[in-house]
Amino acid sequence: MTTVEARPLLRRTPHVLRPDASRVVSTPFLPGVEIEGAGLSRRAVVLARLLALPDAEVDAALIDVLTSFSTRHDDLVGLLDERYALVAPHVEGADGLSLERRRLIGACMSQEYAIESAALFNPSMVAHPDQGGLPVGAVRFVMSVRGVGEGHVSCVELRTGVVDAADVLTFDTPGPTTSVAVRHEIEHSRADLLRQSGELAGDRDDDDARLRGLPASFPAVAVEGSARLAWLASCSYDATFPAAASVDSRVLLPGSPAERNGIEDLRLVEVEHTEGQRGFLGTYTAFDGQSVAPHLLATDDFTTFRMRRLSGPGAKNKGMALFPRRVGGQYLALSRWDRESNSLAASPDLQHWEDLGTLSAPMWAWEIIQVGNCGSPIETPEGWLVLTHGVGPMRQYGIGAMLLDLEDPRRVLGSLRSPLLTPSADERDGYVPNVVYTCGALLHGDTLVLPYGCSDAAIRVALVDVPQLLTAILAG
After folding, report:
1. Could you list the residue ranges that cross the membrane (predicted)?
2. Looking at the predicted structure, is the pLDDT value of residue 104 above 60?
């Protein structure tokens, strides 16, 4: 009689994604202001030296730039023209300059930024919007990752790949170039800005009076002159990538003052709206160098992204994670507004979030410092499966799990007493040691495809048997 070997509860795959210092984007470089507090810009003297260069040297220098960097950037010439346009109003005799000199000036106002030179970690995974051309049982995915470069500034990158019917993963190899989004101003909601203004410190009376005199929606120019309102308006924007750019070339860089020091830990989820439409939402941590706040990302196609600042007591601190559908007519989210517990938050519009109370607090030794979520809840017939994280002795992180009632997610049906995943010996060392952490897993049949960051140094993948996990959770 042949016995069938039971699947393990969790098994690690051989995949390891490490930081690649050759992945770069081009950002503006204004000489003299690259170091905060360095003093006045050196733009004028640098421009004067560029204008004094002989034509032959200009031509030779530009040829060297195009030869050395064209394979590292899509449309390098267009990029140099954009950078020249940034300083053109300050260039003496700009109308008479040759195209070559303009582009060399553009090159001197540019720099490369290695988006993951310091770290690569904290992924989340969703099904790709394009599932065409796949064999039966296979799923194409999009995985967000957090890259960290110079100055500990975080960005969001994307990876793609396929999980086949046998749960074998294949990651696509990203191309040699990257693509950055163009920021677009949006119409702002008077109601949203009134709520957000009420949460900022300082006197708000004049600003609120001004807001109440505006229509229900208005452009950012309508609040120019008010530092408070202009700052709030700048925190919400749209970002669009060239349609021809591959998904895995797209890099979301900080695009607002609230994100100045990073876009961190995007938790992606595919969401079903009541209108029957589906789209992708994600909450991320906006970091300005001093304070953090959860912001909302929305996209239908991973080409145009809508980035919005949130309000309400449920939208504080770090680690919000949205449910994939409304429950009881409301949008729900996991929240960690108090910095150490898992809570539930609700919203009628995805913008303003009220706190519905604590779901779980630190209890066991492995999570005694703090707990939080590890991505959006996953719907199963038994309940909402929630991956959690806990921090224990020596600041070691572990990944756990709990189950919430489908109809009343305030009701916890069970949770793991011991972590599902902790750092193995070869996962302990990195930028931040002793950490395993995920921002979202993908349900594929009875398997949970769990990408996770290892000590902020690399990304690995584990496969979890969902029926066994649910049984373990309910057993307590």
Report:
1. none
2. yes
Query: What torsion do the CA atoms of 222, 226, 231, 237 make, to the nearest 10 degrees?
Result: 0
What's 323's DSSP letter?
-
User: Under 8 Å CB-to-CB from 297, ≥6 apart: which residues?
Assistant: 266, 281, 282, 283, 284, 305, 306, 307, 308
In this structure, what CATH number is given to the domain that contains residue 142? Answer: 2.115.10.20
Burial of residue 458, with CB atoms counted within 10 A of its CB: 0-12 exposed, 13-18 middle, 19 or more buried: buried
> Domain containing 336: what range?
10-19+115-186+236-475
Residue 382 resides in a domain = yes
Residues 47 and 132 in one domain: no
Half-sphere exposure for 356 (CA within 13 Å, toward CB): 17
- Residues 80 and 153 grouped into a single domain: no
Distance (Å, whole) CA 267 – CA 285 = 10
pTM higher than 0.90, yes or no?
Answer: yes
3 domain-assigned: no
Listed residues 79, 113, 147: the one ending a domain: 113
The 10s digit of each residue's pLDDT in 362-389 is 999 999 999 999 999 999 999 999 999 9
How many Å from the N-terminal Cα to the C-terminal Cα in the chain? 34
pLDDT at 6: 79
Task: Give the Cα-Cα-Cα angle 295, 297, 301 (nearest 5 degrees).
Answer: 175
**Residue 235 pLDDT grade (very low, low, confident, very high; cuts 50, 70, 90):** very high
Same domain, 88 and 119: no
Whether 32 and 97 share a structural domain:
yes
Contact, 105 vs 28, CB < 8 A? no
Count of the separate structural domains present in the chain: 2
Residue 299's φ and ψ, nearest 5 degrees, are: -155, 150
Same domain? 75 vs 137: no
Say what the pLDDT of residue 273 is.
78
Token pair belonging to 187: 């119409």
Query: Could you tell me the pLDDT band of residue 43, with boundaries at 50, 70 and 90?
Result: confident
Residues 381, 282 within the same domain: yes
Asked whether the beta carbons of 441 and 378 are under 8 A apart, the reply is yes
Whether 127 and 36 map to the same domain: the answer is no
58 and 94, same domain (yes or no): yes
**What does the alpha-carbon distance between residue 187 and residue 333 come to, in Å, rounded to a whole number?**
25
Domain boundary among 70, 92, 113: 113
Percent of the chain residues topping a pLDDT of 70: 97
Checking 168-174 for CB contacts under 8 A at 24+ apart, the result is 169/13, 169/15, 169/449, 169/461, 171/15, 171/17, 172/248, 174/23, 174/246, 174/248, 174/249
Query: Are 342 and 321 in contact, with CB atoms under 8 Å apart?
Result: no
Q: How many other CB atoms are there within 10 angstroms of residue 286's CB atom?
A: 24
